[in-house]
Amino acid sequence: MGTDANGRSVGEQRWLVVVAVIVVIAAIAAIVIVQRGRHERGGGTFTTMPTTTEDPSTTTEPDDVSETQIFAVGDGVTVEAPPGALSDGAEIVGEQVQLVEGPGELFDVVSGPIELSVVSGRLEAPVTVVFDLPDPRRFVPPDEDDPVVVALHEHDGELEAAPGEWSGSTYRVALSEFSSISLWSVAWGKVTAIFKDLLSTLSGGLYQDVDEPECTGPDAEDRVTVANPDGPLLWCTELADDETVTVRVANRRRYTLMLDSSAGTSEKLSGTGSAEFLSEWVSSLAGDSVVALAPGDGAVFTVPPKTEATVTSTYDGLAHSATSLLVSIDFIVAIAGFVPFLDKDAVAGKLETVEVLNCAAQNTREGDPSVSLVVQILTVCFNENVIKGAVGTVAAALIGPILASAGMLNSLVSYGQAGFDLIVKGTSDTTITISAAPIEPTSDPGSGCGDTGPWPTCDDEGPPVYFAWLGASFSFPSWSSCNATYCIAGIDGAVLVTRLSPLEDLGTIPLDADPVTALAGAGLTRREVVEVLQPGDP
Fold first, then answer.
1. Which phi and psi angles does 505 have, rounded to 5°?
2. Is the bond leading into 445 cis (omega within 30 degrees of zero)?
3. Is the pLDDT of residue 196 over 90?
């Protein structure tokens, strides 16, 4: 075997060549790996050589200078790594990624999501993500002064809220681990629309879950007179064999009512609405004489024979307090409905707590009279612990700024308060008069006026539209008598019965028929029979 000029054998020369080739290949591979680590994320990746700044906390000793590294990771987004936060040679990179699931339609993305990672090393201490937002006034709630944004980052596949703070026109968020991070603001216009819709529904809409009261046996409708029949109560009646009258009522509005009965007995029914807990709370404050009906709640009033009673529905200060609490809960639940990972029904149940009730009662007694109770309850009673317990940490971070924005809420309530007061208070008061004594005509047969027995032939009354309707059919009565719903009239030797609204001919009755029996057969109640047969002044 030969040797080279240095005295190496041919075998040794071949081995050196192989080693040299391996070294060259390894060097090329290392360069490729480094380049891939910096650029494989594509054009959306930001990788820069870190700049350094002198840490203001250091001393003036020349040998004691620490440095903060700053990495640009996105448009207007940087990461500040204080000394010791990164291992030697490590760099931070960021990549704009697609949003898989955001917090919902009530929130607008401000920046991101940006996926952060460390290359050529590791993260050893928290760093600060800095979002440069030149116009933070865009994120200020209506009638407020300070901007509001929320940072969300991913941890173990779940979104988490990251606390941050404003510093001039930048928002700074501390992170101790890397994944995706995004910045969100509240879509205040959409929140405003939810609140206005809620007030509109409250003032006039039926409560969605209310059931019609159910009565059995003969009805006692002719024993009951209702003022404001289109008001907030649904009702039905029962007549027992001993003339006891029972009236069952249900609150069909989305606000709380106070019912007071002047006689008989009353019983609160199990509520069918989601706010059953409210009526128990209000009843405990109102005392035994008043029945508080939350939306969907019902009650039974029983009037013994030969007596008369009234049931009066009102909307007063205590009812307003309960309504304010209900509005507050409905508002939070409505907002929660726009957060995709929340169950509205579960949220509603978790908001109904003794802590909140006691807080609402306290605000009712001691609250600022210049501020809406809705605002006081939202901003005071639904504190951080209550909200977190109902919706979780992430949703609380999103919903919390909305509830804390007392200026916005107060402006919304003020916007709808005048109309709310007018509509609710103007339509809530109603009185049900219940008579458990049989109602009989005040005149015996033959005691009417004129020559036709019990009929009121001396009367000539009725609205103009009634006479116009008769004239259009060439019917000209010799006498007529009306109440608010029906008219009777003498035409062609018989008695014509007419409903007024809508105008409808119900047929004729012979003059020699028993008026009470015949009119009841035409559909008139006992009270209506009395009213149309009662003769006026002859």
1. -80, 115
2. no
3. no
DSSP letter string over 339-352?
STT--HHHHHHHH-
Q: 256: closest CA among 303, 214, 294?
A: 294
d(CA 214, CA 238): 10
What is the Cα–Cα distance from 257 to 282, expressed in whole angstroms? 10
Contact status, residue 502 vs residue 464, Cβ threshold 8 Å: no
What DSSP string runs through 395-432? HHHHHHHHHH-HHHHHHHHHHHHHHHHHHHHHHH-EEE
- pLDDT value, residue 166: 92
Distance of alpha carbon 425 from alpha carbon 461, whole angstroms = 35
Report the C-alpha gap between 316 and 243 in whole angstroms. Answer: 34
Q: Give the side-chain half-sphere CA count within 13 A for 388.
A: 7
Those residues with Cβ within 8 angstroms of residue 412's Cβ, 6 or more apart along the chain or in another chain: 192, 195, 196, 199
How many angstroms separate the first and last alpha carbons of the chain? 154
- In tens, the pLDDT along 52-75 reads 443 333 222 333 335 889 999 988
- Report residue 348: phi and psi, to 5°: -60, -45
Under 8 Å between Cβ of 205 and 422: no
Residue ranges of alpha helices (H) inside 429-510 are 464-472
**β 170-175/77-81 pair status:** unpaired
Q: Is 41 helix (H, G, I), strand (E, B) or coil?
A: coil
Q: Are 68 and 83 in contact (CB under 8 A)?
A: yes
- Residue 515's alpha-carbon distances to 228, 376, 444, 453, in angstroms, are 29, 61, 11, 10
